[in-house]
Write a structure and sequence with these properties.
five-stranded parallel sheet; binds iron/sulfur cluster; 12 helices; alpha/beta; 286 residues
Length: 286
């Protein structure tokens, strides 16, 4: 049985999640919500908390889960196992998609052609998640992005002068294309530290290991920097989040999507990034 402390802690997290869901209208009545489930603590908490809301709080929506196996040897297998275990434990409809099966190569194969594996990983994961969620009739795609992830993402776009990506900021994306399943971020107000404590306190089966490619990423460096800042100046991350939220409406209005001429998926150019990269990788693998 859970101790009173863990019950209070869980309650605090649930309150934050409910606040985001209600304040930003993340879920509409009757929505089919697909959770992008990696097996890591953030996506697993997202699944558990949405399942709890569904069963205990009178929210009216359907829940399913999609796990993408990118093919990262010695790492991804455990995450996929945790993802499946949690979905089955909660009785959630679970779909596992292998990048190798879908695209003909794994992330390990593709990574050699890029400065960092995170570049193809991000492109193909987004592509497969959206395509699968759309095929499954999902109205929303819930990701495990927490408060820390969001601030890191913003600073990454800032550092790369990538204004288009600012449109992805915020707990909910608008439907900017009929085939683009809008993303929602129920953990938007939950700091990463609290997600970790939740997983440990509740003894949840989560994959806690770090991806072997993580050290290559700008995100990882920004994460360390922000953690140091937060330690010396508590509240910094939340202040940044609030600042970005107040100042980003202009960038959000500028985004328009067309359709990729090869795969038909939503794209900002005539050929989408995933098709462009697939072509490049396949040519190099031959
Ligand atoms: Fe993919 Fe990079 Fe994350 Fe590893 S660290 S899962 S390669 S985005």
């Amino acid at each position: 049985m859970k101790s009173l402390d863990s019950q209070n802690f869980n309650q605090e997290i649930e309150t934050k999640v409910k606040k985001v869901i209600l304040d930003y209208n993340l879920i509409d009545k009757g929505d089919r919500v697909a959770v992008a489930l990696s097996g890591g603590k953030d996506s697993v908490l997202t699944l558990h908390i949405l399942d709890k809301l569904l069963n205990e709080d009178g929210f009216d929506f359907e829940l399913l889960a999609i796990a993408i196996d990118e093919g990262i040897g010695g790492y991804r297998e455990e995450g996929i196992e945790s993802a499946g275990n949690n979905a089955h434990q909660l009785g959630v409809d679970y779909h596992e998609i292998s990048m190798e099966t879908e695209l003909g190569f794994s992330l390990d194969d593709a990574s050699q052609f890029f400065k960092t594996a995170c570049v193809p990983c991000g492109v193909f994961r987004r592509y497969l998640l959206n395509r699968t969620a759309y095929q499954l009739g999902a109205d929303k795609l819930a990701t495990g992005h927490n408060l820390d992830d969001e601030v890191q993402s913003f600073l990454m776009s800032f550092a790369r002068a990538d204004v288009r990506r600012f449109a992805k900021f915020g707990p909910k994306q608008d439907r900017i294309h009929s085939q683009m399943v809008p993303r929602i971020k129920p953990l938007w107000l939950v700091p990463e530290k609290e997600v970790g404590i939740w997983a440990i306190m509740n003894e949840v089966d989560v994959h806690l290991a770090e991806c072997p490619y993580a050290h290559q990423s700008l995100r990882s460096r920004l994460k360390n920097y922000l953690n140091q800042l937060e330690e010396n100046h508590p509240g910094t991350k939340m202040n940044m989040l609030k600042f970005f939220q107040k100042n980003l409406q202009v960038a959000k209005k500028e985004v328009k999507l067309a359709q990729c001429q090869i795969c038909g998926e939503p794209s900002s150019a005539s050929t989408c990034k995933a098709c462009e990269m697939q072509e490049f990788i396949k040519q190099n693998l031959e």
